[in-house]
Amino acid sequence: MSVKSKIPLFVLLTFWLACTSAVSAIEQNIPLSQSKGGTLYLEATLESNIKASFLLDTGSSLLTLNQATFDALTRNQKLFATRTSAARMANGKIVKISQYQLNSVRIGNTCEVGPVEVAVLPKGNNILGINTLLRFAPLTITPDAVILAGCE
Fold this sequence. Notes:
Residues 1-25 form the signal peptide. This protein is of the alpha+beta class. It is 18% helix and 43% strand. The chain has a single domain, classed as Cathepsin D, subunit A, domain 1 (Beta Barrel), CATH 2.40.70.10. The chain has three helices and 13 strands, in the order αβββββαββββββαββ.
């Protein structure tokens, strides 16, 4: 008398996808610089050609560009606002912002995601917010690097 094991196809498929995803992920160590105030910064490339420094901010919901970075980005290409919305700033003030969609944001050599929603503010730092950071998850932040394990 033989007993045949029947494993549901979706269980096998889920296991196979998990294994192949883990194998294809590449971990990247991205160097961070630290300001005198303790904030952490990293370099990122927008649309494959604009390099900029970004404040690493897990409390910010969006990738945010200052006006200077946005101007550099739109020198050679036109971006259209996808929507306008209200944003609460760190000081509690609510301001009206325009949001755009970028095709590509790259951190390090191989960590690239897109499309990504960005907001534009006239002043301040470029901010790498949680909407982009989670696309590279899992991630680990240390005082001198962010380790992105979700790169393909």
